Every structure is written in C-alpha cells, then in structure tokens.
Amino acid sequence: MVRLSELISGEGAPDGDEPPERKSEPANFPREPGLLSREARDGQSLAQQLYRDTVSVMEGILACAGRGDSIDASALVGLLDKMSNRVLLESSELARLALVNHEGDQPAVHAVNVAILAMMIGDELGKPKTKIVQLGAAGLLADASLAPLGDITSCARALTDSERELVQKHPLEARVVLSQVSGMDAGDLLPMIEQHHERCDGSGYPRQLRAAMVSEDAQIVGLADVYEALTHARPHRDKALPFAAMKDITGSMREMFAPGLLRALISRMAIYPAGSHVELSTGEVARVYEVNRDQPLNPVVDVVLDRDHRRVEQIMRVDLRTRPSLYIRGPIRESDIEAE
Ligand SMILES: [Fe+2]
After folding, report:
1. How many angstroms separate the alpha carbon of residue 145 from the centre of ligand 1?
2. Span from the CA of 215 to the centroid of ligand 1 (angstroms)
3. How far apart are CA 152 and CA 156, in angstroms?
4. What's the longest Cα–Cα distance across the chain?
5. How far apart (Å, rounded) are the C-alpha atoms in residues 53 and 74?
6. Which of 115, 120, 291, 317 has an alpha carbon 20 to 30 Å from 264's alpha carbon atom?
7. Ligand 1 center to residue 167 CA distance, Å?
8. What is the pLDDT of residue 267?
9. pLDDT, tens digit, for every residue of 126-165?
10. Distance of alpha carbon 309 from alpha carbon 323, whole angstroms
11. Cα–ligand 1 centroid distance for 62 (angstroms)
C-alpha cells in the first residue's frame, strides 16, 4: 500500500490491485478544518497541485491540437501515474476539484475533470492501475479533436446543422489527433475515444452503436463526460446540482449506460458529493467535506451558515453518521450560498 507521504516524496511504487486500507473516523469530532492532520493537508495540497499541473499541460496540448501540430504528451504520463494512486483517487479532494467551478471552465478544465471522474469510476469497478491510467488518458484526450473547431463548442447560440455535423464527427477525427501524439502509448486509447459518445440505447453518435457494441471502457469515459457536463455551467445553460445530475443519469438516461457503471458512479460520487452544499434539519447550511462510503446519505460536513443563514465564526465539522438526530433536508446551490 502506498502512503500519501511516499507519493508526495516520490517514493511510492505503483499500487497494483491491492485493496486500499480505510481509516476509521473518530466517533464524534466537531473539528476545525485548520486542525486537519498533516497527512490530510498534504493529500489536499498534492491533489490541488496535480490538478493545476494537469490543466496547465492540457492547455498546451489542446493548443497544439487546435493548430494541427504534433503533441508531446510525455508530461501527462507522470501526472496520470500519481493521480491514479488509490489513496489519492479515493480522497475527497480530487472529487471536489472535479465538481467545483473553476474560473472560465475552459476545455482543459473539462478534460481534467472527465479524466478524474473516469478514473474514479474505474477504481470503483476494481480495474487495475494500468486500466485506470488509460481511462484517465482517454478522458484527457477525448475531445482534443474538437480543438481545431475553435469556439463552436462554447458559443451560447444553437449550432447550425453543418456545425453540429462537424462536432459529431470529432470521435472519428480522434484517429488523426492521436497519430500526432508522442510520449504516450496513445494507440490503445483510440477505441475508447472513438466510442465515447455512443450510448447503449443507440442514441449516441457517430455510429449509433448499441449495447455490447459499445465497449465498457468507452462507456466509462462517456458517463464521466455526461456527469461532468451536467454539473458544470455552459454558455447556454446553468449547471445542475450533483443531486439533480445523478437523478437525470439514473432516470431519463438510465438506458444509455450499463447498470453496473451507473451503480459505480452513484457509489463513488454519492448523492451529496464532496464540495456540494446541503441544508441540515436544523436549518444550518453545510458543505460536504467527505463522503461516508458506508452511509452516502450521512457524509462528514462543515457547517458554514447558521440557521439564520449567517456565516459562522468558526466552521464546525460534523460526521452525520454519529448524529442520528441531524440529517440532510436537501441540496443547495452554490450561488445561493454566495448570495448570503
Ligand atoms: Fe466528446
């Protein structure tokens, strides 16, 4: 088992298929976030650094793809290796970073978020580390073939028929982009990327494949892509709460993906994922700090607003598993918190 401290110091070996150790929480711990253990703080800052570095590398890669230049993806290999470490992948911080709003929410940010979510689903399914790294790489590069289309994909107006046709060809254009990638074994990614918009019910594109014709790996990347898109704002629409996104995916979209993959997404991201906001039964508002995998409806939360919705002087951390009388009434939008 590779510990975070080893990962941070670069001494960690690949963690193979060994199941992760799970730390037990103290029974009842209102705890001030500033008093987090050094290991937890190190894990958070490592996740944040990895996130920033990967976005930065992807900005360069997408710029090259946009110009039709050759792409040196060697920097991604080390980043994906670190990010795919189970201790880090199962920490709340990477999930939180993949869900919160980042300035601009540019294509590079979307790519990194999809990669993190695809790796998390793969980890939840018990995939080996080599496969998890591949899922991450496919998530990062799935939309690189959109880069030459410029602003088409980010404009607020409806696309014309010819523009939509161009966009829907991007999985097929992946072959050209991947042939220009060096420093990474990109050939293995092609089947996943070519099919990442295909859906089991035949509603996807470009080939309207059905059921088993859509590979499981491609479905994982596609599911990560859909969940990421729903939980982030686009020029023509607001973002959905993670709770509502999960409802959509398991409701109207449930025929699009294999049931086992939907279960893995729900299990890993939970209804109230890390970083989302909730109203408690006391009327207080809290931010989810960590999902309790054994009780997803009772996460560890930081109480940030009192019952009159005023900011609290000292943030209180509560493990809802240990407080049966305290429960979550429902999710709250981040914008409602900011308005307080
Ligand atoms: Fe795509």
Report:
1. 8
2. 16
3. 9
4. 59
5. 13
6. 317
7. 8
8. 84
9. 999 999 999 999 999 999 999 998 877 777 777 888 888 8
10. 21
11. 13
197 C-alpha to center of ligand 1: Å? 6
Of the CA atoms within 13 Å of residue 136, those in its CB half-sphere come to 30
Among 8, 20, 6, CA closest to 293? 20
| Higher-pLDDT residue of 93, 319 | 319
Average pLDDT, stretch 201-209? 96
Q: Is the pLDDT of residue 240 over 90?
A: no
Global pTM exceeds 0.85: no
CA 27 to chain centre: 29
- Domain covering 38-269, topology: Hypothetical protein af1432 (1.10.3210)
For residue 88, what pLDDT is reported?
82
Strands (E), the chain: 71-72, 181-182, 277-280, 285-290, 300-305, 311-319, 328-332
Q: How far is CA 219 from the centre of its chain?
A: 15
First to last CA, the chain: 44
The model's pLDDT over 47-63, given as tens digits with 9 standing for 90+, comes to 999 999 999 999 999 99
